[in-house]
Amino acid sequence: MENEEKKREESEIEIQDKLYTLGKNLKSIEAKEELREKLYKSILYRSPITEAHWPYEVDTLSLLNKFRIVDTPGLWQEVDGEKTNEDLRDYYHKADGVLWLLDANVIASREAKKMIEELDEH
After folding, report:
1. Domain that includes residue 16, residue range
2. Which helix (H) or strand (E) holds 78?
3. What is the secondary structure of 17-69 as a DSSP string?
4. How many CB atoms lie within 10 A of CB 36?
5. How far apart are CA 51 and CA 91, in angstroms?
6. Do the domain assignments include residue 55?
């Protein structure tokens, strides 16, 4: 995992370096944003690892032995400026139960409510 994180960090540094160098010649914010998006799509390291299991020790009689906690992407997650929820759907339908953690700043968001309702429909 450390190696994967290092690759990601190195790719982010490379993007920032290229953005700084190439962005000097661009005048508009829109052009700089377009360059940033292009660099992220072409350079950003994306790990093939989709799951990691972390060992933990609990008493064999503990209620915790009956659960597996999976940290999935949020209700929506932006990757390169595009919202995605496919990974969430994969896990949602495999789960016996779901604990939603919502951003307190947007807890009444219609978007969050709509996403949860759509998941229940499928």
Report:
1. 1-50
2. strand 77-79
3. HHHHHHHTT--SHHHHHHHHHHHHHHH----S-----------TTSGGGG---
4. 18
5. 11
6. no
pLDDT digits (tens, 9 = 90+) for 87-105: 566 677 777 887 877 777 7
**pTM to 2 decimals?**
0.56
Residues 116 and 77 in one domain: yes
The answer to whether 44 touches 15, Cβ cutoff 8 Å, is yes
- The total number of structural domains that make up the chain: 2
**Same domain flag for 70 and 122:** yes
The model's pLDDT over 13-41, given as tens digits with 9 standing for 90+, comes to 999 999 999 999 999 999 999 999 999 99
99 and 45 together in one domain: no
> Are the C-beta atoms of residues 48 and 8 closer than 8 Å to each other?
no
Cα–Cα nearest to 80, from 111, 34, 121, 113: 34
Indicate if 70 and 116 belong to the same structural domain. yes
Query: Token pair of 92, please?
Result: 């949602």
Q: What whole-number distance in Å separates Cα of residue 90 and Cα of residue 111?
A: 19
